[in-house]
Amino acid sequence: QRCCICRLPGASVTCRGRRCRRIFHLPCGSERGCVSQFFGEFRSFCWQHRPVQRVRAAQQGQTPCLICLEAVAGRPCYDTLVCPACASAWFHRRCIQGQALSSALHHFSCPHCRDVATFQDEMFRLGIKIPDR
Question: pTM score, two decimals?
């Protein structure tokens, strides 16, 4: 199969969006904004069908990422995530992914409100890989 992003052969990740026929390499998908869920059925979605955050959160002025303290986008999007529990913790996808990898499943929580269950469920759904150990 040819990758729909780089056009090279060997693509094996299929979008699980309804009637979507896109197939891509995992690294190409990550660069293009595709989401792979690392739980349950290990589903993947292209940039058009990826899950989005349903959290309604408004920034108070320019909000920084709670991890790197650099500015985030003005609304939740692929690169900017919000804690679904407190809706006041904003962070970059790469920053929260780094925290998830170093904290692992048993210690990974919202850096602001320390919610575990709601926060982890949402991060899993949005494609954040949270290792068991």
Answer: 0.88
